[in-house]
Structures are given as C-alpha cells and as structure tokens.
Amino acid sequence: MAVDYRGSSPVAPLADRFGRVATDLRVSLTDRCNLRCTYCMPAEGLAWQPREQQLTDDEVIRLIRVAVEMLGVKQVRFTGGEPLLRRGLVDIVQSAARLEPRPQLMLTTNGIGLDRLAAPLRAAGLDRVNVSLDTLDAERFHKLTRRDRLADVLRGLAQAAAAGLTPVKINAVLIRGLNDGDAPELLRFALAHGYQLRFIEQMPLDAQHQWDRKSMVTADEILADLEPYGLRADPAPRGTAPAETWLVPGHVDAAGQPARVGVIGSVTKPFCGDCDRTRLTADGQVRDCLFATTESDLRSLLRSGATDSELASAWQTAMRGKRAGHGIDDPSFLQPTRPMSAIGG
User: Fold this and answer.
1) Which of 223, 214, 149, 137 is nearest to 179 (CA)?
2) Along the 345 residues of the chain, how does pLDDT read in single tens digits?
3) In what order do the strands lie in the sheet with 104-109?
4) Residue 311 domain-assigned (yes or no)
5) d(Cα 127, Cα 27) in Å, to the nearest integer?
C-alpha cells in the first residue's frame, strides 16, 4: 500500500491540559520477554500479541519520524517486553539516528543478548542503555526471574560499556523478602565498574494484579540502607528526570564525573507534575501515562492510509487528555489492564 507523506511540516508539540509537553517517547517494540520476573508476569508467561497486530519495522520508523520531525520529540527510548528480541532492532535504531533533528536514542533491556548486540547497536546510532539487574546473587536472581541468566546479564553490561553505550545505567527493583537487602552490594558493584545505578520502587503493573504496597521497598528505605556511603544531595537540577540523584563521595563514574546513585520513587514520591513522556505500544497504541486506562489507536490510522499530519493530529489529541497524576493513592485507582511487558518501560 502506498503511503501518503503529504503534510509533514512541523505542527504544535504534544501538550496536555496542564501545560506539560511530551518530548520523551517510549517505544515498545515487543511484548515478548525471555525472563519471567515475579513482579511482572506469571511463571508460565503470557499470551503474546499476534504478530499481525504489532507494528512493522516501517510503521515504527514512520511514527518515530512523525514524533521527532513534527511533534518535537527529542528523546526516543526503545523498550519491551525485551527489545533485544525484536529482529529489526538495529535497523530501527539506524533509521531513527538519521532523523533531523537527531533524537537521543536509548534502550531499556534485561541485558540478555546485549553482549552480541552492543557493538552493532552502537554503530547504528544508539547512545546508551539501561539494564535491569535486581541482584548480584545467582540464587536470588533465579528466584526473581525464574531463569538462570545472571552471567548473561553481566556480560551484556560489560560489552555495553566496551562499545561506548555510556553512561551504562542499571535499573534495580527491590522486593521485600527477596532482595530487599541488596542495595549496598548493587551500589558497590556499580561504583566498581563505573555504571550508574537507579533504584525503582515496585509499581502496580504486574500481569497478576497482585501488587501489594507492603512488599514494596520505599525510596526512603533504600536511602536508609545506603547511609554508610554518606550520600549528598545532587546540586544539579533534576529537570524532568524521574530519578532523584545523590552524589557518592570519593567515587567517580566511567567518564571521571562524580558518581551518582538515583532513586525513582514512582509510588511514594511521584513526579507526575514534571512528566514529559508519551508512550507507543508494540501494537500501535498511544498511552499518555504509564498508568493510563485508555489508549488511542494509531495503527488503524496508519493502515488506512492516513497522512503524517493526520497521525500527528491524532497523537496530539491523545495527549491532551492526560491526567494530572497517576492516582495510585486514590481509592478509585484502577491498575491498567495491560501489564508492564505490554506497555513498555
């Protein structure tokens, strides 16, 4: 089918009713994953989306181009599921890197397969990676992910650094009774290798809908565990970044800058007022919030021959309805029907 690219001049940015402007696009490339993390999906896995429902590589690239060239998106993060399972990943990254103005390109991954793909992704134009790693203990890793793949993740981290995908960041989720005492060891590991560590509060995004606030290790508890490091508040402006960061005295990162550790208090210290994100699922739905209960369908527009301007307009409309906050503490809060693996991080 011929695609009509008429009307691809820049239009207004992705603004919502509260004056927030989305410049950070999260693109989920697949809902599939090769781990079965306890806080994300059941041991038996999930029913994956049919391939025909998912956007093709060309469709993904076109929507990214509309977002960057017409809607003012400046950062694109590829997520999943596990994005390294997407066969066209390197080509998608390469196409995104050729856009003008060139967006910053990032990837969030569990690290399995990153040892093979770090160099090709860097050559294609990827700027940096975030790797999920919740523990350095092999037994706890198996309990958390139901897979014996810790060594693969560690190799992926090393190769990402070697390929220049820096600063390499680690995302860690702590679960009470499983790895809640692992914060100091994870920080020691990150400091020793020049990685940047980010702790993320567990969020109600599991497929089983069994999230319990009591099992969540809070931002304050994490910082209390890291007190021996003498952390100091980071004087650098936080801006729209989700993580509050602290300097680690006496340490530098791989670039020779002061070492930092971050905590993303999505539940206890929400940052919704500064949110600058818009999300595209693997099956072509726009989500204005990670916890949104509604979506806007761009895939149908794409496949019915919509122009770029029509796609941009639909995207703008989708973002105008964004709520002021996620409302997790509101008694009326409803967990999204989609689990995290089908939304994208």
Assistant:
1) 137
2) 333 444 456 678 999 999 999 999 999 999 999 999 888 877 777 767 888 999 999 999 999 999 999 999 999 999 999 999 999 999 999 999 999 999 999 999 999 999 999 999 999 999 999 999 999 999 999 999 999 999 999 999 999 999 999 999 999 999 999 999 999 999 999 999 999 999 999 876 555 666 677 778 999 999 999 999 999 999 999 888 889 999 999 999 888 889 999 999 988 888 888 999 999 999 999 999 887 888 999 999 999 999 999 999 999 999 998 988 776 765 556 666 676 666 776
3) 232-233, 244-252, 258-264, 196-200, 169-172, 128-132, 104-109, 75-79, 24-28, 277-280, 285-287, 296-297
4) yes
5) 15
Q: What is the pTM of this model?
A: 0.91
Q: Within 13 A of 240's CA, how many CA atoms are on the CB side?
A: 12
CB 215 within 8 A of CB 175: yes
Q: What is the CATH number of the domain that holds 144?
A: 3.20.20.70
The structural domain count of the chain equals 1
Domain-embedded: residue 342: no
For 248, the enclosing helix (H) or strand (E) is strand 244-252
The amino acid at residue 5 is: Y
* Distance separating alpha carbons of residues 20 and 18, to the nearest angstrom: 6
In a domain, 341, yes or no: no
Residue 336 lies in a domain: no
